[in-house]
Design a protein that fits this description.
By secondary structure, the chain is an alpha+beta fold. It has helices at 3-10, 25-48, 61-74, 84-100, 113-119, 138-146, 149-155, 199-210, 227-256, 265-283; strands spanning 81-82, 124-133, 162-172, 175-187, 286-287. It contains ten helices and five strands, in the order H-H-H-E-H-H-E-H-H-E-E-H-H-H-E. A five-stranded mixed β-sheet has the order 1-3-4-2-5, sandwiched between helices. The longest helix has 30 residues, at 227-256.
């Protein structure tokens, strides 16, 4: 590409109607198409080549617990203590989601979260569960939970005394991802007498003892490239390119006192800002 044509991509000139070629409508459409293709390619590659792209466990469970307790402290609630049985229950739940290919509190066969808690040997009086996936920091996870009324209710419930958290990498429906499971509980010291409203709970205990233990896998540590970070980097590069182009455009127009009869620079900026916000929101992760 001749130097003059390259310069006109980023600077206003008489030959490009005093508007950088990069922010002309055809160029904008091309850029949007390239961005969407890049995002799709990253997602596809992470599924086809998990050894090349995949989520690494860069989210320490203990940090999630720390941030959760900070939220409780702000609300003047007791600190949750880490319980090994709840932690095992959280790991088993994450592995079950990977094994059966679902993303839900209940499995396709109807298994509820409490099954994993009971199966891990935790006899609970109260129990709760928060789930998250595709996040790249513990701060973002806890912030998302706190912005959700139901998840926030779990974090700030005065009923709970203990917590278990698991962060597990795996392949869910062909996509490499990271699942975060947060289990809450309050133990009972004595098993109460069986009554009509306790029958289903007792059956769950018997079922948990009867079935063999799920195999517990540990998060993989050999994955070096995170598709989340690559995707965010591509989006950021796109935003920087457009922002720099608009900045150069405004600076030159201001210095040369060029008056354009028509222009939609602000509309272009708003349009791209909306696209970037949508992309970032989509890639921030999911909670249920």
């Amino acid at each position: 590409m001749p130097k003059a044509h390259f310069v006109r991509l980023f600077t206003p000139h008489v030959h490009n109607n005093h508007r950088p070629k990069l922010i002309h409508n055809p160029s904008l459409l091309v850029l949007i198409g390239l961005l969407l293709m890049a995002q799709s390619a990253i997602t596809l590659l992470s599924g086809l080549k998990p050894g090349i792209l995949g989520y690494a466990s860069l989210i320490p469970p203990e940090t999630i617990v720390k941030l959760t307790n900070e939220q409780r402290k702000t609300a003047h609630l007791n600190e949750l203590k880490v319980n090994s049985e709840l932690t095992q229950a959280a790991i088993k739940k994450a592995n079950d989601m990977f094994a059966k290919g679902y993303w839900s509190h209940n499995s396709p066969d109807g298994t509820q979260p409490w099954y994993f808690i009971l199966k891990s040997g935790y006899n609970y009086l109260h129990a709760g569960e928060n789930l998250a996936r595709d996040f790249n920091s513990p701060e973002a996870i806890v912030a998302a939970w706190m912005n959700s009324p139901t998840h926030k209710a779990n974090i700030l419930s005065s009923k709970y005394q203990e917590i278990g958290t698991a962060v597990v990498d795996g392949n869910l429906k062909g996509i490499e991802t990271t699942l975060v499971v947060q289990m809450f509980g309050s133990p009972v010291s004595v098993v109460p007498e069986i009554s009509s409203n306790q029958t289903s709970r007792t059956n769950l205990i018997n079922t948990a003892l009867a079935l063999e233990n799920n195999q517990i896998t540990t998060p993989r540590s050999n994955i070096k490239l995170s598709p989340f970070k690559i995707s965010r980097s591509v989006s950021l590069a796109f935003l920087v390119l457009v922002t720099i182009t608009l900045g150069i455009d405004w600076l030159i127009i201001w210095r040369r006192n060029i008056i354009r009869i028509s222009g939609k620079t602000w509309a272009h900026l708003t349009y791209f800002a909306t696209i970037i916000i949508i992309i970032i929101l989509i890639k921030q992760g999911l909670i249920i």
